[in-house]
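Severity: low
Component: inverse-folding endpoint
Summary: output formatting inconsistent between runs
Steps to reproduce: submit the following C-alpha cells with default settings.
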C-alpha cells in the first residue's frame, strides 16, 4: 500500500469555520473522512496540519526518512513566503502535489507567486477540496 501524507499549513485548521465564500463549509475533519472513504482501502493516509513553519519542515523530513510515497501539500500562506518549505520539499525527493482550495491566480497579486510550486511535481488550484482527491488519485497512479 502506498503511503501518502496530506499536509496542511497555517489557518487551514479553521476550514469550514470562517470565510465559507472562499474555502467552502467543510472542515478539515470532513476532508479527512472523505479522503479515507475514497482511498482508505488503497492507500495509507497520514494527515498533518500545523500553523508553524518549522513543524511542517520537520514533518517533511520525517516523511522522506520513513520512505513515504508521496506528499499532498497545501502550505497555506507559507506557499508565498517560505524558502525553507521549498528547500524541505526539494530535499525530500518525494513526488509532491501542491493543492490550493481557491484559485490563487484569481486573488491578490501576492498569492500569484508560489515559492513551493517548483519543488512539486504538479499544482492544483481552484478545485476546492476536490483538489486533494485529484492529487491523491494522481500520486497513486504515478
Ligand atoms: O486556497 C488555498 O488553499 C490557500 O492555500 C489558502 C491559504 C491562503 O493563504 C493561500 O493563499 C491559498 C489560507 C488558508 C486560510 O484558510 C482559512 C480557512 C478557513 C477560514 C479561514 C482561513
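Observed output (run 2 of 3):
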Amino acid at each position: 500500500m502506498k503511503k501518502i501524507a496530506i499536509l496542511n499549513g497555517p489557518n487551514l485548521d479553521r476550514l469550514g469555520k470562517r470565510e465559507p465564500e472562499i474555502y467552502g463549509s467543510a472542515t478539515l475533519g470532513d476532508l479527512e473522512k472523505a479522503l479515507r472513504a475514497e482511498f482508505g482501502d488503497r492507500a495509507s493516509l497520514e494527515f498533518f496540519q500545523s500553523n508553524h513553519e518549522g513543524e511542517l519542515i520537520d514533518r517533511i523530513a520525517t516523511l522522506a526518512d520513513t520512505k513515504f510515497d508521496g506528499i499532498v501539500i497545501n502550505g497555506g500562506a507559507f506557499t508565498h513566503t517560505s524558502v525553507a518549505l521549498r528547500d524541505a520539499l526539494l530535499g525530500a525527493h518525494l513526488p509532491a502535489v501542491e493543492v490550493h482550495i481557491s484559485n490563487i491566480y484569481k486573488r491578490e497579486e501576492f498569492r500569484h507567486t508560489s515559492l513551493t510550486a517548483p519543488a512539486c511535481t504538479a499544482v492544483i488550484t481552484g478545485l476546492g477540496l476536490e483538489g486533494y482527491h485529484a492529487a491523491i488519485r494522481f500520486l497513486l497512479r504515478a
